[in-house]
Amino acid sequence: MAEDTARAFVCGHPVAHSRSPLIHGYWLQEHGIAGIYERQDVAPEAFETFLRNLADGPYVGGNVTIPHKQTAHRLVDRRDEAAEIIGAVNTLWFENGRLCGGNTDAYGFAANLDATAPGWAEGGVATVLGAGGAGRAVVHALRERSMRDIRIVNRTVARAEELAHRFAGPTSAHGWEALPDLLADTTLLVNTTSLGMAGAAPLALDLAPLPAPAVVTDIVYVPLETPLLAAASQRGLRTADGLGMLLHQAVPGFERWFGVRPQVTPALRDIVVADLEAKA
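^ Shikimate dehydrogenase (NADP(+)), sequence as received from the core. Prediction below:
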């Protein structure tokens, strides 16, 4: 193998299901780059050592997924603004020998909506379901786009209050029972919970109160059309699935490691969809 071949990775536990090698492998081939992107299954007890040894090679950086995002946030030498605010790291790279950590989830979320539902932020009123790590990234993206009212809804209201307090500004916390009233003027509805994911309970939600111009998006991408998105489509609302977020969040990392900013194209999406369907 040539010494100048750039190598990157995705690490998690488990990590065999990750579509990141498929995405980055497509871009490497598309741009004729002699690079490698591979999976590294790293158990939680081995992750700190893995991170400490990165500077010794052979990698120029990589992605971090569950369950290591918070640990990576704690251990890197420097964090970008998004990672600092969100409290998690999903992208690693080196600058002057220092291990840096970033978070591209908020970027991926907004870029997906920009591509599939142009003008999504203009209404300014977002209702976010869930107050976990994904919720943090989504709320950060919404703050970056100057949404004037961000409602965080969670079955455990205390967790929603914690997230609302973390971001302050136009954020508020609510219990699930408040949804019928909140949806009446919501212009963007976001599901960041695992409800509706394959193998999980469905997200049972009456979308009748949503205004006609509202956009509905789900960060879940297995299945590609969740029950929430199916219900929104039946109402004639604009929707955005979670696969687009996965594809767009990969762009900044690829650019850092391989020096080319790739594009999310229908051809790439088709390849990942085919893989999802084959393994369904």
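The mean pLDDT is 95.
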